[in-house]
Amino acid sequence: MRIGCLHVPDLPLASLVRAEPRLAEEAVAVVEPGSSSYASASGSGPSYSHEVLRLRSDLGVAKPAPPRLLGGNLRILACTPRAAPITQGMTLAAAQAIRPDLRALPASAERTRAAAQAALEAAGSISPRIEEAAPGLVFLDLEGLGHLHASEHALAQALGAAAVKVGLRAAVGVAEGKTAARLAAHAAAADLDEARWFSSAVCVVPEADLRAFLAELPLAALDPPPELLDALHRFGLVTVGDAARLPAGAAAARLGAEGAALLRVARGEDRGHLVARPAPERFEEGEELEWDAAAIEPLLFVWKSLLDRLARRLSERGLAAAEVWLLLRLSGGAWDERSIALAAPTREVAPLLSLLRLEVERRPPGEAVRAVRIAVRPAPARLDQLALFAARTASPAEVAAAVARIAALVGPESVGRPVAPDTHRPLAAAVEPFAPPAAPLIPEAAEVQPALAVRALRPPRAAEVRCDAQGRPAVVSDGARLGGRVVSSAGPWRTVAEWWTPQPVALDTFDLEVAGGTLLRASRELQSGAWWIEAVYD
Hints:
By secondary structure, the protein is an alpha+beta fold. It contains 13 helices and 21 strands. Helix 4 runs antiparallel to helix 5 (152-165), helix 11 (297-317) crosses helix 12 (349-362) and helix 12 (349-362) runs parallel beside helix 13.
């Protein structure tokens, strides 16, 4: 089975550069998350991003107190090419002694989580069957995709380009089996362009060249258990090719089942199957703050950055946000989660940012905020065929954005379209999320306008009614300007229904003309005798 592998080298570093692309041009090292603070290499204090410092200055917010500095004994996980000769595994103190200008940043769990999900989305845009073996390491089933691309090399390049679009630096390998594809991706990682961070490299291993490709690799590349690797080294075996030449039966008898499986992989007989997993139901982006934010203004910059990245990811997939979740990790460690329903799917950042602000202003968190995560439930972006000869109207995306802006001003519960519910109650109405119907391809003939239009009053107005000897309304008034002496009437129309529900319907309805020419619809509840005016005819 031909398998593709998308590998994001140094995922903690890649996630930081994805969030702040300018870091790729600096000497930056990512260290173990031993502290929640940022630190400069010189140890003079925390290194805040230029955007955050400028924003806080514009808002008149004082600079926060410096948090703890990163410890000098922390290990470096990865570094940018500009940080040479710093290498992975060095302590921060040793790296600072070599490069005093080195900028050390702690690994961010929130950014790494979002970058790993972005890698999954990039792989899912190429193949429907994917498996995440580890964060930043994704396998793809390439069977049946040959007719979509000119060659396997072109397919691998398309996968690398998809990763670059979501802000990742990726290596792509294509080979027979998962292990060979992973090794090919690691080989491609060595060819990544150091001068250009946002790039990709590919390595395609034809089936006929698989054994030759594996033969020169060290045995440690196959990730065997330490005990098995020591045993193979005692036998004098150093490379994968050395192990492939062992007789299968004798080697299995001496090395056991794990050894036999390792030798099959060394001979290019990988029997591992791809285990596809369902796609995530939510798109997420997160950020850990450099300080505990107690006001909403510093959070706006963070939310804007997260929404920008979410919008790019949704746009690449042709999706829009149908619902938004805001998760705030408080200084005490608890998570404060809020759900924001959208009146219409959108991926425009401005209305979404307004909704987040209104939600937090309505119910401020009880403690300072230490980390932020924004998640959205995706929905297909609506596409409509516009009429060829009709005037141009707003696109579905423009309508959705306008509805989201209105919802940000008046609240999502106040935006929608009226519908007639399935009930026996006269003039009953409800509101559901706004979704304009598609325009007909052929314009319909003009309909005859009715002579009268009914204007329902929501809620109905309580009325005082004096009846004549026959029980018909003679004078009606709502206590304001609506009502008067009844000139003529029609009815009653009795409605008795929904007796099986907690609120049964039992009323008489009249159409009334009062002095002055106003036409009303009034109803009387049979059980209580209460009257109300339901509608006015225009």
